[in-house]
Design brief:
It comes from Halalkalicoccus tibetensis. This protein is α+β, with helices and mostly antiparallel strands. It contains 3 helices and 4 strands. The chain has one domain (7-90): Gyrase A, domain 2 (2-Layer Sandwich).
Length: 91
């Protein structure tokens, strides 16, 4: 099991563009059209499946919101931060 990060660790390790929302980290990515957002969501899904750490994703017309938390630990861990960085690499 991963260790929960404290507030300072979360703030200093949060990848560019991500924000904390309670016990989750979140970022909304913008796209030119709906299908580009769907393609991005699929790419994120493939990464998440490989790492067995799945985000909540909300696909809208030109946006995809991605949220990470570690449910088993009850908050934000290194794994969430690492996944957020991997998602940034796909954007």
């Amino acid at each position: 099991m991963a260790e929960l990060l404290d507030d300072d660790e979360i703030q200093t390790q949060l990848p560019e563009g991500w924000e904390r929302d309670g016990e989750e980290i979140t970022r909304t990515f913008e796209f030119d059209d709906y299908l580009a957002g769907l393609d991005f969501a699929r790419e994120v899904g493939e990464i998440a499946d490989e790492e067995f750490h799945h985000p909540q994703m909300i696909v809208d017309f030109q946006e995809v919101e991605v949220r990470f938390t570690s449910h088993e630990e009850g908050g934000i861990t290194d794994q969430d931060i690492e996944m957020a960085g991997a998602v940034n690499d796909e954007a």
